[in-house]
Amino acid sequence: MSKNTVVIVAAIAGQKGITLYHEDGRETNLTLEGWRTKQIMDKVTPYIARHQKVEIDLDSFDVHAHIEKKSGGLIRFVKEKIASVRSWFKPEAEDEASKGAEAFAPTATVDDGSYGKHTYGVPKADPEQETVVAIIGDTRVPGVEALEVHMERAIEAGDTEGVENFMKRCAAVIDKRGHSIQELLNFMKKGDLPIARDGSIIAYKVLKTQGDIIVDCHSGEVKQKVGSRVVMDEKLVDPSRRTECSSGLHIARRGYLRNFGGNVIMMVKIAPEDVIAVPMGEPDKMRVAAYHVVGRIPDKVHNLLRSNKPMTGDDEASKLLADVITGNHVGVLEEVRITGPKGSGLKITQLVDQAPEIIHGTSGRAKALDDEVQKPSVTVKEIKDAAKAAAPDIKPESEITKQHVQMINGDLHVDGKILDISEAAATGDMSAAINNAPSAAPAKKAKSITRSKGVAPDAIAVKVKMPALAKKKAYDGPEPEKPLPEKHTLALVLHAEGKSNRAIEAELKICRKTLKKLFDKNGLKPNG
Predict the structure, then answer these.
(1) Residue 356 pLDDT more than 80?
(2) Cα separations (Å) of 445 from 118, 489, 493?
(3) What is the end-to-end Cα distance of the chain in Å, rounded?
């Protein structure tokens, strides 16, 4: 059994999130956003609706577990301590420009005074800290928690093939350039574009027009177009992470585009195998040995991109991205090989006599990873509907339209249901604090109070059906504790409704010192 296996006995949903109550009295809090929340609620809701317990392994709802299952076990994930992972990599003898790259003088150097911290295949961290390791065959790729957003979006889209292929391709070269893979993962962590289905990285390349042709911005010598594969020998690419601007083919993620002055922005695909270096001080760009130009990004979205905003609100750009992800784009028509410094020694080789016809815009639409505010993966209404479908014979609770308030044994009851005042105050959602299971009939000595003024009918509507919590004991008789005075009880209700202390004082004609003492006793803070 997993260490994270729990028994859920109840659930409360409100507009600010979901709380799952464990059999042992602990809680798990979920946001309404995210793939994980929906999967958990799909599992839990039918049982809770029937007033049944349900055992779940919270780890099984992890994105890594889902990818592992989708891959058929070809990719597995484990957690390892940083200290252990470091021992897998041999220190680099030197991290300097290769001999072939010495002709390209770097224009900027990273020197943070602690360069040695970057010389191993994993980032500096507390040795006891854990990292997620992907195991592909006999190869281990640490640091894949950086891909969590990519994984979650892929799961939500129902297609994890790209993420799986990306990790497999990284595993194929990690023994050759371990530090480059770790830096690539850092580049991907804040990248805005999804991974292509074939495991390629999708990024941006800024170019410029020169008459009727398109060339690179640096030398103005490297001619290219959609369908070009621009390549240079690895020995000409500076592998040093200390140098920011040096020899190599420069590729950017969106956050760096404002630093390039060209008037053409291309969408390119890069093989993980071709990534040589990601500068330590500028993880928004990287130096690669090759890239494939797969599409020209519409001019109308350039300002958005240079402002570091997603372009995929534009229909044309969204369709282009979808085509590139699925592979519905122009293949490699020509090889543009750079054999000398500063774009010199250019050799262009035509590989295809006639480009095959591509019907663009047929792959649907795709979104940048950060496009739009993330919407809830599940809503309170959907949970209620699912509960009703799972237990149609159980009469649903109606909304509370009147208040019968009683203080019994220190618990505040509303229409026979326990109201957790502190939780209501903390969440701002009265409905989230109502235990939907009826308690026993109140004691005869308990004073019943009916409030009629200032009550908003929807303020404490029941949101989700749930059984009584294991840690709550039903009232089974009169207790010696004296009920709270009527004004005190009403003060607690008004506080839970969000009223300020001053408003409560004015409405109930209650002393400020008495009110403070009452709220302090119940662990409440003033509203405003």
Answers:
(1) yes
(2) 72, 15, 21
(3) 47
